[in-house]
Amino acid sequence: MIQRVPLLAAMGVIVAGLAGNAEAQTPAAYPSKPVRLIVGFSAGGPTDVVARAFADHATRALGQPFIVDNKPGANSILAADAVAASVADGYTLLLGATNHTMIPALYSARVKFDAVKSFQPICTLAASPTVLVVGPAMPVKTLEGFLAQVKSQPGKRTYATPGTGSSGHFASEQFTRLTGISMNHIPYKGAAPAVIDLMGGQVDSSFATLGSVMTQVQAGKLTALAVSSSQRTTLLPGVPTFGEAGVRGYAADAWYGLLAPANTPAAIVAVLHRVASDFARAPATLEKMNGLGMDAQSLCGAPFTAQMEREVSSYTQLARELNLKTE
Predict the structure, then answer these.
(1) Domain match, 119 and 258 both
(2) Does pTM top 0.85 for this prediction?
(3) Which domain does 161 fall in, by range?
(4) Which whole-number Å values give the CA distances from 208 to 144, 277, 324, in the listed order?
(5) pLDDT band at 27 (very low <50, low <70, confident <90, very high)
(6) How many CB atoms within 10 Å of residue 42?
(7) Which ranges of the chain would DSSP assign to H, the alpha helix?
C-alpha cells in the first residue's frame, strides 16, 4: 500500500492536467461579449439592411449585442481587410456580398487578403435574383423576342449597368458570352440613373438586381423577361427563369452572406451556422427580404465556400477577357 500511494497520486495529477488542458482548448460560451459585424457599404444599402436584420435576430437568439459597423470604401476592400486581419475568435465578422468575390478580378494588386482562404464562409443569408428588364426602347415581351432583336442588330442594342466592373456588368457579359450575342455597354454611376434612363428609352435593357427594379416592373414601367434564380421567384411569379425561357446555365444571383476570419474555432462556427440558418427560415426574415426584392437563403459551410471559389475563378477570367483594370 505504501508503494501504491505515490502512483495513485501521480495518476490524479495526470487526470487533472488532462482535464485542465481540455478546458483550456474549449472556447468559452459564445458569445460572452458584443460581436462586431462589419459592412463594407454605407448605411441604407441592401448589404447594410441585411446586416441589420441579421444583427437583430442574432442579438435576440444569443443574448449578446451584434453591432453593425459600417466601413465603406474601395468597393468593400477596407471592411474585408479589417476582418481578415482580426483575431479569429468570432467577435469580428463580415457581412459580405457578391462583389466580395469580384475583388481578386479587379483589385488584385491592392489587396493583402485572399477573398476565400482568408475567411471562414459561414452561410448566405439572402439572395437577390438578377432580372433582365427592358424599357420602351425595346418593346418585347419574351426573352426569345429580346434575343431576336439583338441578333438582328449586332453591337447596336444597349445594356445599362451601375458601372464598369460592377456586378451588373459581369452579369451582362456572362449572358452575352453564353448566348453569343453582341451588345453595347452603357455604364452609369449607380443603379438609380441607369434605371431612369432605361425607363426614358435612352437605353434598351439592363441585367439588374430584382430589388433595384421591382417597383418599376410592378408599376408596368419596365418589362421583366427572365430571372436568374434556379426557380421562379415568388415576387414575380409570372416571370420565367432563364432556363425556362430557353437559356440554360445562366446564374447571376447577388448573394449576401456571413463570413468570419479563417481559423475561427469550429465550436463558434457551429453556433453561427445555426443562428444564420434560423434567421433565413424565420417568417419575419422572409417578409422583410421579400419587401426588398430578395429571397431569404441559407447556403452554409463547404457549399458556400465552393460557390465563392467558382465565382472568383469566373470573374477573374471574365475581367481578363474584358481587359478590366481598376487598380
Answers:
(1) yes
(2) no
(3) 130-227
(4) 19, 27, 20
(5) low
(6) 12
(7) 4-25, 46-62, 77-84, 103-107, 143-152, 167-179, 191-200, 210-218, 266-281, 283-291, 301-322
